[in-house]
């Protein structure tokens, strides 16, 4: 890989974290979950996993994701482990599919979104306090908006696609997660 995974999907090919200003930090925070397909697909998957009372999951999932990002600032990921952490993030798509099929507990979504947050937070290590705060605000805005959207409309989505559609979507997410994981681990 020519680009370090942590910096692989900053919007507009922004500089490394130490060189960000507040606006770039905000844009990066908003864009990072949207430009990383594994992160975006995981957030979208929450809409079809069939959570009971999905809106009640919004705050815990958002908090867990932001907590994961904060932890990455205290305990940075060693470079030697980054490909494995990215593989686990990709594998989380398969787990979301298993949750949708009722083969795994929805509670697994909480530590998995923390893992996503951990890797998203790693992209800002080394930033000054102002762009760092702006980055976290951007993450809060983008992840919160996506989670609000998918938890608000998940019941309507599930009603429209039916049980068969949910199984097909789960299979697609499992396949995408397995393919992303494979591509990271097998050169």
TrEMBL record:
<dbReference type="InterPro" id="IPR007038">
    <property type="entry name" value="HupE_UreJ"/>
</dbReference>
<protein>
    <submittedName>
        <fullName>Putative hydrogenase accessory protein</fullName>
    </submittedName>
</protein>
<keyword id="KW-1133">Transmembrane helix</keyword>
<dbReference type="Pfam" id="PF04955">
    <property type="entry name" value="HupE_UreJ"/>
</dbReference>
<feature type="transmembrane region" description="Helical">
    <location>
        <begin position="83"/>
        <end position="101"/>
    </location>
</feature>
<feature type="transmembrane region" description="Helical">
    <location>
        <begin position="133"/>
        <end position="153"/>
    </location>
</feature>
<keyword id="KW-0472">Membrane</keyword>
<feature type="transmembrane region" description="Helical">
    <location>
        <begin position="108"/>
        <end position="127"/>
    </location>
</feature>
<keyword id="KW-0812">Transmembrane</keyword>
<feature type="transmembrane region" description="Helical">
    <location>
        <begin position="165"/>
        <end position="185"/>
    </location>
</feature>
<feature type="transmembrane region" description="Helical">
    <location>
        <begin position="58"/>
        <end position="77"/>
    </location>
</feature>
<feature type="transmembrane region" description="Helical">
    <location>
        <begin position="34"/>
        <end position="51"/>
    </location>
</feature>
């Amino acid at each position: 890989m020519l680009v370090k995974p942590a910096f692989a999907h900053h919007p507009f090919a922004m500089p490394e974290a130490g060189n960000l200003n507040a606006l770039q930090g905000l844009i990066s925070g908003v864009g990072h979950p949207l430009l990383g397909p594994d992160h975006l697909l995981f957030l979208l998957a929450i809409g079809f996993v069939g959570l009971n009372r999905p809106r009640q999951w919004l705050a815990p999932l958002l908090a867990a994701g932001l907590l994961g990002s904060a932890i990455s600032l205290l305990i940075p990921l060693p470079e030697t482990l980054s490909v494995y952490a990215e593989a686990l993030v990709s594998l989380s798509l398969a787990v979301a599919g298993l949750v949708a099929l009722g083969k795994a507990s929805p509670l697994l979504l909480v530590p998995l979104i923390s893992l996503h947050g951990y890797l998203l937070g790693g992209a800002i290590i080394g930033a000054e306090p102002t762009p760092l705060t702006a980055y976290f605000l951007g993450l809060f805005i983008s992840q919160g908006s996506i989670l609000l959207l998918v938890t608000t409309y998940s019941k309507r989505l599930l009603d429209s696609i039916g049980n068969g559609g949910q199984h097909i979507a789960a299979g697609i997410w499992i396949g995408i997660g397995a393919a992303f994981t494979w591509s990271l681990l097998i050169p």
